[in-house]
User: Fold this.
Amino acid sequence: MEFSIKTSSAEKQRSNCVIVGVYESRQLSAAAQSLDQVSSGYLSNILKRGDLDGKLESTLMLHDVPGTACERILLVGLGKKSEFAERQFRKAVRASTKAARASGSADAVSFLAELPVAKLSLRRKMAHLAEVSLDTTYHFDAIKRKQEASDEKSAKKGLKKLVIAISDAKEKTEAEAGLADGKALASGVSLTKDLGNLPPNVCTPSYLAEQAQKLGKDYGFKVTILEQDKLEKLGMGSFLGVTQGSDEPPKFIVMEYLKGKKSQKPVVLVGKGITFDTGGISLKPGAEMDEMKYDMCGAASVLGTFKTIAEMDLPLNVVGLIPTCENMPSGRATRPGDVLTSMSGMTIEVLNTDAEGRLILCDALTYAEQFEPSVVVDIATLTGACVIALGAHASGLFSNNNALAKELLRAGEVSMDRAWHMPLWDDYQSQLDSNFADMANIGGRAAGSVTAACFLSRFAKKYDWAHLDIAGTAWKSGKEKGGTGRPVPLLTEFLVARAAKVNPTV
Ligand code: BES
Ligand code: MN
Ligand code: ZN
Assistant:
């Protein structure tokens, strides 16, 4: 979809579709009012009949309205005027893009950016408009038959051009900056969704490594792939214990985006990259096992975030680490009862081979030490228990540093990609006691997402660290099954705010 910015009034648009808002109860926004005037009350008459009250996300399409130059007018419900805030704004944008697309309009002019939203700058409104519109029109057809894919394209992917109207020409530069923010974010989100949605026989560890290399080439940052022999030399026995049942070679991806000052310590992002999680010898039940192709969404979110910040040319030092492999059962697979020696030297009794995410992450956390990080954030579809605790609305956030936790919570609020702070108290640590090694890899049924985080915390003692459990937020189940691209918005906002702090002029 292409975007452009325009300052002109609603009645003059020659577009396929003009989008204007209506508050509850039947209160016209400024742009809707001007359309109402030129059409001698056409809009208000229809509203009086009760066709649309203005409830948030409701829509009504009008055709050939007298006195106007456009083919269609789309009225979008904005909800109560007194309650119209950022969240409502995004919902109205989503509903309007969906309806415009369904109508078959090839282009549209949206007047939603003109709506006043409490505490929201034009720049952010524009960013939301671009991001939400691109998110709504996202369509995964990379692996459908060519004919079918193009049929869907012509039927559903109608909306090619979105013009966003702003009221003051002096604000064009600010509006353009917002548009660029939104587009950059959407491109990372889209990459993250694509990688999640690809089947596990395509999206293998080698495929992820290739994608990282391609990103590095496209945007000019360094990417190194550590192969099995190197991982053995490094002593990553825990990571290697997970991959050993699989015929796919493991990869350890290192991305170094160093666009900040040389002296500035990097933020290190670590993403779980299990391209398929069968559970290993502790095999998972069959139902919905296909969804375990999404077990690399932490990795995908790191790749997506790198794409977004590179697109923004963000002046910050960021290192991305992605341990990636499959978790398969086989004659060579790790058994329950096996003891693995991690890169840190600590030994781990594997009581359940399905708790594999922490086993690959712990070695990556140790590897992170050499970068002398300012902070390390790992992102992982780590536990089913987190889905039970928080559902699909918030990612679980754990941290050994309260200031860092606050920073991430704020980034989640601002980007509308929320996380919720969970405890990491010492009280839980004893659940990981083992009779035969320094620790066990599981801590029993109680507080499963907390004990998983406790396990990781033992490998993150040398720096400020946070862990995002995205098992509930990274993809949707059911009929609209698919990757969500989360938490790329949260991570991007977190990094943008950090860059602003170290370079106050940005
Ligand atoms: N990848 C799963 C976590 C998961 C489960 C994410 C369901 C999304 C939906 C992880 O590797 C796993 O299997 N965790 C186990 C841990 C248990 C064995 C302690 C779990 O959550 O059941
Ligand atoms: Mn598992
Ligand atoms: Zn897993």
